[in-house]
User: Fold this.
Amino acid sequence: MTIKARHKRFILIAIGLALLGLAVMLILNAFKSNMVFFYTPTQVVSGEVPHGTSFRLGGLVVPASLKRQDDGLTVHFSITDTAKTVEVIYKGILPDLFKEGKGVVAQGKVGANGVFEASEVLAKHDENYMPPEAAEALKRAKEAPADVQLK
Assistant:
């Protein structure tokens, strides 16, 4: 039995479409696994963050909240957007620009105890280098009434 040229073209087109669909599926899966969303402390406290997924948390480091453990690597601090505050624990070396009262973006997950367990901390010296959401949170912090602002 011989296959007509028209059927050969149809089979090749079907195989090509199947391969294209597989490639699109693999690309979308890679995007999904590498995508990290940004949330503010208010969103974290209100429960808008999906559990078990890594995300970025941004805001200002609360003054006098930085506490170092004896191991020299583990630090505890709090991040605020002037409305809500989230406790953070990080094991590693903090960036040189990390300071209390300054902007920070931390990537990690919320643990079972409600503490944000950071795997990476990015310190920012101003809002020019922050994600738009973090810059907006800092802008709201600067515009907050004097009794709420960080000193």
